Amino acid sequence: MPDLSGPLPPGATIGILGSGQLGRMAALAAARLGYRCHVYGPEADAPANQVSAAATVAPYDDVAALTRFAESVDVVTFEFENIPLATVEVLEKLAPLRPGAAVLSICQHRLREKEFCNGVSVPTTAYRAAADVESLQRAVEAVGRPCILKSAELGYDGKGQVRIDHETDLEAAWAAMRGHAAEATGIVEAIVPFRIEISVIVARSADGSLRTYVPVENRHRDHVLDETIVPANLPADLTDRAEATARHLAKEMGLVGLLAVEMFVTHDDKVLVNELAPRPHNSGHWTLDACITSQFEQFIRAVAGLPLGSTERLCDAVMKNLLGDEADDWLKILAEPGSKLHLYGKAAPPRPGRKMGHVTRLIRR
Ligand code: AMP
Question: Can you give the pTM of this predicted structure?
Answer without folding.
Answer: 0.96
